[in-house]
């Protein structure tokens, strides 16, 4: 990992829980790395596990609300023009918008566990004017297990926290499969409710 990333993470670490939340809010470093580093800080006794999770959930949720508001108030032209500055390109938006249109609001939860659309899904939610309360609930419910998972991994890896992505790479297909299974359950329940109401 580059020296500059280490320096940024050390700066976040100096801010304690706020630093963990801030690291996730501004998303200059992938959330997996920030959370794994938070796990390392837990292992070293600098912060505690529950506090790290709370900071992770707050920071991750604010980051997604920011993207939601960009979609809600700025519209697609703004996203296409300035998205590159938040590491989201047109392909990400197209894919996320297609998923959102096809599968509905439940995809805001399941897409959080899938690469490429994980962050971008917040934008079509904003474009579609999804109720912010509903968006926030789905987002928080997804970010909680995501934060717990990576903080635990970072805690277990200790000083080797920065290898988290490589260590977990073989498990990525499994995470995607679980997310897909959750989505299928959601879709079936939604369909069942819809049929009952007819």
Oligomeric description of these chains? single chain
Spans of at least 5 consecutive residues with low confidence = none
**Helix and strand pattern:** HHHHHHHHHHH
Q: What amount of the residues lies in strands? A: under 5%
Distance between the termini: 56 Å
Mean pLDDT metric: 79
**DSSP summary, beta strand count:** 0
Q: Report the major sheet.
A: none
Shape by Cα distribution: globular
Structural class: mainly alpha
Helix content: over 70%
Instruction: Report Rg.
Output: 17 Å
SSE diagram, text form:
Layout: H1 3-14, H2 17-26, H3 31-43, H4 49-82, H5 90-103, H6 107-110, H7 117-120, H8 122-127, H9 132-157, H10 164-168, H11 172-197
Helix pairs in contact: 1-2, 2-4, 3-4, 3-9, 4-9
Please tell me about this protein's structure:
It is built from eleven helices and no strands. Helix 1 (3-14) crosses helix 2 (17-26), helix 3 (31-43) crosses helix 9 and helix 4 crosses helix 9. The relative contact order is 0.14. The chain is an all-alpha fold and 198 residues long. The chain is globular and about 55 Å long.
